[in-house]
Design a protein that fits this description.
The structure is a single chain. This protein is an alpha+beta fold and 425 residues long. The chain folds into two domains: 337 residues, no CATH class; 69 residues, Serine Threonine Protein Phosphatase 5, Tetratricopeptide repeat (Alpha Horseshoe). It is 56% helix and 17% strand. It contains 14 helices and eleven strands. The strands form three sheets. Strands 4, 5, 8, 9 and 10 form a five-stranded antiparallel beta sheet that branches. A four-stranded mixed beta sheet has the order 6-7-1-11. Strands 2-3 form a two-stranded antiparallel sheet. β8 and β9 form a beta hairpin. α2 runs antiparallel to α3, α7 runs antiparallel to α8 and α8 runs antiparallel to α9. The longest helix has 50 residues.
């Protein structure tokens, strides 16, 4: 007579044991997920620290296995790998990494329903990282700098066009509040001018001026190129607007252009008001600009063309409401799933609620090694040989202690030499 009761008790006991085992497995899975996020942050931190300490080749070596391995984080590792190689002056290899990253960001990703659902239920780290919009845009800026360092101006020009084409699509097709980038137009204009394509150069200088009229270089540029392109009505207009500016005559001279990548882009942390989503915070840079130094006699201070930090922060802030809505939906989903489990097993339901919320962390993946800003310094020189270097400058105008290697270059009439440099402090 007692046998059925004993069997029922045994079945109940076994069911409870299995549920408890499932609960422990579930918590272990959440712990592993959190651990994976921490591991990712550690990997990026190592690369960042190595680059900041002036060991880019070592940084590239450390991140290379991650960049070459297919994973949900491959794109962001390729960003870091390409930047480290660029800083190590391995421009060809850097291009290969950046171009692969661009190919991956261009591929339409079809996430499975289970993975998308998982990203709502747990966190955004469960889906493939496709890059923030601003990262995809500045990828082309970094490629342009690489091509200039390699002497391929045509390819550099292509990258500047692609940069603004992306911004145009974001603004007019995706309906996002983005402006075109003055750095892309200014860099493009300098390349056109170096190739003696005066009219194209004038058009891009004018576009850069429309986006950033306060840039001092542009006043001389517009006067000079309006004359060279024989746009005499525009020349008279600029003379009226800039009566105190006398354009330098570059006839018979060459030019050295320092392309400065200053500082470090802002870093993602959990949002103070809603820790389940990220927020970007600026990283302080002691070196705020640089002097282009020629033969220890001529000095020209760099001028900021674009603030990557401002663009990045605005981009993520604009996405704030959408990110909050998605994580709020995630909270509702967690409550439903936990309640369903709680109806079968109180302990399992409680553990599920705790585990799901522990795992719901802000997605802090990002391109950490982007610069804070892109800057330019230009010096015109008579034909001859010169010793050139750059020196970092603090916000007080004093030397920051950073200094590039001295290089010897030969300037020819009508030639432009582009020199990239990155500050780290």
């Amino acid at each position: 007579m007692d046998r059925p009761k004993t069997n029922a008790q045994a079945i109940q006991k076994e069911t409870s044991r299995r549920l408890n085992r499932f609960a422990l497995s579930f918590l272990l899975a959440q712990a592993l997920l959190v651990s994976a996020c921490a591991s990712y942050q550690t990997e990026v931190r190592e690369t960042f620290d190595l680059m900041r300490s002036g060991r880019p080749a070592k940084a590239a070596e450390a991140i290379k296995p991650k960049a070459e391995k297919e994973s949900d984080d491959q794109i962001v590792y390729l960003f870091e790998y390409g930047t480290a190689l660029q800083q190590a002056k391995q421009y060809q290899e850097s291009n290969q990494a950046f171009l692969k990253a661009e190919d991956l960001t261009d591929i339409k990703d079809y996430h499975s329903i289970s993975r998308v659902s998982g990203s709502v239920l747990v966190n955004e780290g469960m889906v493939q990282y496709k890059g923030e919009d601003y990262e995809k845009v500045y990828l082309n800026a970094m490629l342009a700098i690489n091509f200039l360092a390699l002497g391929d101006r045509e390819a550099a020009q292509v990258e500047t066009r692609k940069l603004n084409e992306k911004l145009y699509k974001y603004k007019f097709e995706a309906k996002r509040d983005y402006n075109q980038d003055p750095f892309a137009f200014y860099l493009s204009a300098m390349i056109w001018e170096s190739n003696r394509q005066w009219d194209d150069a004038y058009i891009d200088y004018k576009k850069a001026y429309e986006l950033k009229p306060g840039l001092p270089y542009l006043k001389q540029d517009l006067l000079r190129l309006a004359r060279l392109s024989q746009r005499y009505d525009d020349l008279r207009k600029w003379r009226r607007e800039f009566p105190d500016i006398k354009p330098e005559d570059l006839k018979g001279k060459g030019e050295v252009v320092l392309i400065l990548q200053q500082g470090w882009a802002p870093k993602k942390y959990p949002h103070p008001e809603f820790p389940r989503i990220p927020k970007l915070f600026p990283i302080y840079s002691f070196t705020q600009a640089a002097d282009l130094v020629v033969d220890d006699q001529i000095r020209e201070r760099s001028q900021k063309i674009t603030s990557v930090a401002d663009v990045a922060i605005k981009t993520l802030d604009d996405a704030y409401s959408g990110l909050v809505a998605k994580r709020a939906a995630g909270l509702v989903t967690k409550a439903v799933v936990s309640d369903q489990l709680r109806q079968k097993n109180e302990l399992l339901g409680q553990l599920a609620w705790i585990g799901l919320n522990i795992a719901d962390r802000a997605d802090l993946r990002q391109w950490t090694t982007l610069p804070e800003s892109f800057q330019v310094a230009k010096v015109s020189l008579k034909p001859g040989k010169y010793k050139i270097h750059a020196e970092g400058v603090s916000d007080s105008g004093q030397p920051s202690g950073e200094r590039s290697d001295v290089i010897e270059i030969e300037i020819k009439s009508g030639q432009t030499v582009f020199i990239p440099w990155r500050t780290l402090k």
